[in-house]
Design brief:
By secondary structure, the chain is α/β, with parallel strands linked by helices. It is built from 3 helices and 8 strands; from the N terminus they run βαβββαβαβββ. It starts with a strand and ends with a strand.
């Protein structure tokens, strides 16, 4: 058993696609019309056959409440592994990305938390 798709709720799929591809560097995998929304997934450019991230519309009231509560408590909705948190922090900051937590050591990992512009906090982590 393995994880094939996981999702993050977004307030605007087009904006999310732009942020997750143009800014973070993911690659669009699927973009299929699905009623008033899209089945829209991205994958790591380093692992195009790997786990897909579904950019799922947050139209359900529970999804919006969930996102709002996580952000209010400073809890990331998703975490991405990176080789160099400090390097990604510098690269993304230069692109105008807002961070709520700058790079810091948290036990054996280094983390940083950014705002994805779509209603979520995203944690970047480097593990030993």
């Amino acid at each position: 058993m393995r994880i094939s798709i996981t999702s993050v709720f977004v307030d605007d799929q087009a904006k999310a696609l732009s942020f997750y591809t143009d800014t973070l560097g993911f690659v669009k995998k699927h973009d299929v019309p699905a009623g008033g929304a899209r089945w829209l997934t991205v994958v790591s450019a380093e692992d195009p056959e790997g786990t897909e991230l579904l950019l799922e519309p947050d139209q359900h009231p529970a999804a919006r409440a969930y996102k709002k509560a996580l952000v209010a408590d400073g809890i990331p909705a998703v975490q991405f592994a990176v080789d160099d948190v400090q390097g990604e922090f510098e690269r993304l900051s230069a692109l105008g990305v807002a961070f709520t937590v700058e790079p810091m050591e948290a036990g054996p990992v280094t983390i940083a938390v950014l705002d994805d512009t779509c209603g979520n906090l995203v944690q970047l982590a480097t593990q030993p």
